[in-house]
Amino acid sequence: MKKNFNIAIVGLGQIGNYLYNELKIKKKDIQIKTGKKINIVAISAKNKNKKRKFKINKKVFYKNPLEIFKKEKIDILIEAIGQSNGISKKVVETALKNKIHVITPNKALISKHGDYLANLAEKNKVNLEFEASVGGGIPILRTIKEGLATNKLFKVYGILNGTCNYILTQMEKTKDSFSNVLKKAQLLGYAEPSNPKLDLNGYDALAKVKILSALSFNNKVSNKDCLMEGIENIESKDIEISDQLNFRIKLLGITEMINNQIYERVHPCLVNKDSYIGNVNGVMNAVIIEGNPVGESVLQGEGAGPGPTSSALMSDLLSILRGNIKYPFGISKNRRVNPKIYDKNKYSNPLYLRLEVKDKPGVLSSITKILANHKISIQRLIQIPDNKRKTASIVIITYNANELNSKKCLTSFKLNKNIIKNPVLIRLF
């Protein structure tokens, strides 16, 4: 059995840098735990001269990562570039075709090309490992693939984006605005300084949902459009009102089976303050799995950052070194089917609606009429007047309303001249 493994690291951003140091420091520990020696024979980055905590050996540095395959004998490649296409895909694809094991934290790549790359890995009898793509240091994928392998899972949900969770937590604690808290998150490194859009609009969380969904329900990765909403429109007022109603606002990623169909979605939710998910704060992530016979399982931890991500990458590495050749998505490609997608327009849940209106007679009755016309019943109504501006905030908690009626209702609200701002809709969970 092979005793020495040559490793290539492609991408030296925060994660690549941290991992490189970890591999150097823990080289002996890895050998003790696996009986295998590792050698870093190639690293690749855009800029060799960038200031780093370590010096790059010129002999192992490649500006073009594709050159590595021509000059080095590689056993394991770790891709940490982070793109869904382009060089990330090309590097991973080339490695698998050359019978090289691949480890990646790249959720964008796996959610978009996971099936194709998994087929390549299976064909060439090598591993494609991506534990770090969901939940950072939380071992959620391995738990689903191995720990819960004999369970029938029917729902997986949770807080999958630490940036959004930090922002919502801080808005509640400090009573500060979304824009101010976002700036703080950027300064602390929790949000991208230049373009945090993919975190804030729900895209990052949805990519993770798609991976969780494929693993949980033995399906191919869905390429269908899903319900995706971010937190950009959440205001301090919504945080305050939710607090008064004994709720917190959380951005949840959810996948579940409904009538043998999969319903994947990401959107802000009002969750009960007393619930487990309602008390996961700051940059923490949490995933809750519901299945039979296991019941409900909860995994929580830091969901992002170089430390937690590196921990997951190391876990994948040790799995490969121990000789565990396995299907990337838990079962053979021949047994994974195209998912049947649940019609999101049919899904029902209670709603939180906030309407900023002109404070004058007849406005409330026009609003309740619109709701009635779209078969939406009121559970609770609060009116908060602003006498100085002659306006009012009307907050409505509804009974169950399906997505189609909810959308139509919002359209009608937007046409109502007495409603002076775009209405806010948040689903109750």
Can you tag this structure with a few keywords?
alpha/beta; Rossmann fold; 3 domains; 6-stranded parallel beta sheet; 429 residues; 14 helices; 35% helix; Alpha-Beta Plaits; 26% strand
Please report the first level of CATH classification, the CATH class of the largest domain. Answer: Alpha Beta
| Average predicted confidence as pLDDT | 93
Second CATH tier, the architecture of the largest domain: 2-Layer Sandwich
How many individual β-strands? 18
Per DSSP, the total helix count is 14
N-to-C span: 51 Å
Structural class, by secondary structure, is alpha/beta
Low-confidence spans: none
Name the CATH homologous superfamily of the largest domain.
Answer: Dihydrodipicolinate Reductase, domain 2
Strand content: 25-35%
Gyration radius from CA atoms, angstroms? 24 Å
> Judging from the principal axes of the Cα atoms, what is the shape?
elongated
Helical fraction: 25-40%
What does this structure look like?
The structure is a single chain. The chain folds into 3 domains: 4-133, NAD(P)-binding Rossmann-like Domain (Rossmann fold), CATH 3.40.50; 140-301 and 334-344, Dihydrodipicolinate Reductase, domain 2 (2-Layer Sandwich); 346-428, Alpha-Beta Plaits. Helices cover 35% and strands 26% of the residues. It is built from 14 helices and 18 strands. The chain has helices at 14-25, 27-34, 68-71, 86-97, 107-123, 140-147, 162-174, 178-187, 197-200, 203-217, 236-244, 306-321, 363-373, 403-415, and strands at 4-10, 37-44, 61-62, 76-79, 101-103, 128-129, 152-159, 227-228, 247-258, 261-272, 284-292, 295-302, 348-349, 351-358, 378-386, 391-398, 401-402, 424-428. The strands form 3 sheets. Strands 7, 8, 9, 10, 11, 12, 14, 15, 16 and 18 form a 10-stranded mixed sheet that branches. The longest helix has 17 residues, at 107-123. The termini are far apart.
